[in-house]
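Revision sheet: structure tokens.
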Amino acid sequence: MTNKAQDTASFRQLARLIGVSEKAVRKAKTAGVFSHLSVGRDGSGAPVVLDLSMAVMEWEKSGRSLRAPLPRRSSSSSSAPVAAPTPAAGAGGRDDSDEPSVTPGESAQPDMVPLDAPPSLVNAQIAAMKERARKLRLENDQREELLIDVTEASREAFEFARVLRESIFNVPARISAELAAESDASRVFARLDAALREALESTAVTLDVPPLETATA
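Predicted:
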């Protein structure tokens, strides 16, 4: 269960990657933008992003635009950095629903992309999260027995082909004497048909699969 917590993404991470606020992402979830395959809940019941790439595609499909991270403005006329003034809450009638949310200490997290990160870093972060989500889906499918190991599948396929081949090849040796004594073509055909069906049904029993249904006249 620890892998699941590591491979899922938070709403804040999704918001940082698409360039909007966490509040905007939560509004989109409430509006039904995300499907249950991309956004779900973890073991504690908290909402999480299950498939980051699908969530981004669903965001774009809904008509919402992606905002690329903007580089920080720098002043070439002064060597000393100038702190930007912090506007008062609600000043100027600005709506922060589409502004990226920043929390103190957030940049210290290794899985977050800084606002001034170059596009290549953003793409690398998205690719890494897609790979983690893909790995999680494969592990879950294998745990639920929706997938099997390729080595085991190859071994079973080889065993199936071997048993079927031997069963069919043994048919002529078993009925050659009977066929040699028959002069009626229809009886020869009927005996061959019966022998092949017996061989296939015997193979099915050996391989533990449902037997063939006998055709009714």
